[in-house]
Amino acid sequence: MKKKKVLLLTYGSRDHGSSRVSGINHFVRFKDVFDVTWIPRTGVHNRAGLKDKIVFAFQKQYYSLLQILTIIFRRFDIAYVQVMFLPEFCLKILKWKGTVLCYNVDDAIYLYDTKKFDAMMHYSSKITVSTPVMKEHLARYNKPTEFIYSPVDTDLITPASTPHDVFTIGWIGSPWTGPYLENLEKVFQELSGQITFKLLVVGANVKMTGFPLECVAWSEANELEVLKRIDVGIMPLPDQEEAKMKGGYKLFLYMAAGLPIVASPYGINASLVKEGVNGYLAVSDEDWVKAFLKLESDSYLRKQLGQYGRKDVENNYSYNVCSKKLLNFLLQ
Q: Assuming Cys at both sites, which of 14, 132, 207, 263 could form a disulfide with 235, CB separation 3.0 to 4.6 Å?
């Protein structure tokens, strides 16, 4: 059977979380079905110095132009656009050529530019989202919409077998979500007076004091290593609309690594965290401290919660499950 031609347009390159998780990694698995042309909006973002920033800016302009020229001069069966806005004339060209436009809304991007978002939704044939809250929010556009979790590679990410000398609380994120973690500064300060622990922060340089803290840069290469250094994974969120629209990728990462989880009960978190089964939900500072003390004092409990979480990910949140769901939706 002849392969369908797919244009994959992602917000960023492999170093951009949602581009990698909700776009690139899926289509690598579709190579037997689709002939994929992938063009990111930007190259790899190296924040090391001025030269890197200048190169990044030029790359962004180059890739934006390449996306436009590809849409104008080539024909595709499907265009999968991941959390970005295309110029309206590009949307009209795709429609004129009969390309099925599938728009991946992986974040609350409608908050940034309502007019451009409405245009994307108007010209889209299909929508994919990573949270049920987002699916409900977009129902007013009356477009076929598929809810697909932000999956993890359970073949690549496996539980650690080596015990740690110091109880380590881990958080993986980005500079943009770092402030969510900083809201727990008083929690960690109070905790430091009761137990010995370390907070391992991956992907952001947070400004917190009064307890042992280690911040490391995230890379796709070191993600497995840092997960194996963690005893419990956390996902704090504020009670805000943008935060509630976020997928549960952080939690899936921790669970795939066999770790218990502690999270705020907002958005998708409320349905992913099963109290006392794979982790705990926390609202107040007291809730967070209580959960940490319980997990620090009982390594067997941590193991039990982690094992349940691992099975849950394998059965519901892995690429083996989610990629099949996306493929079927695209072929409908």
A: 263
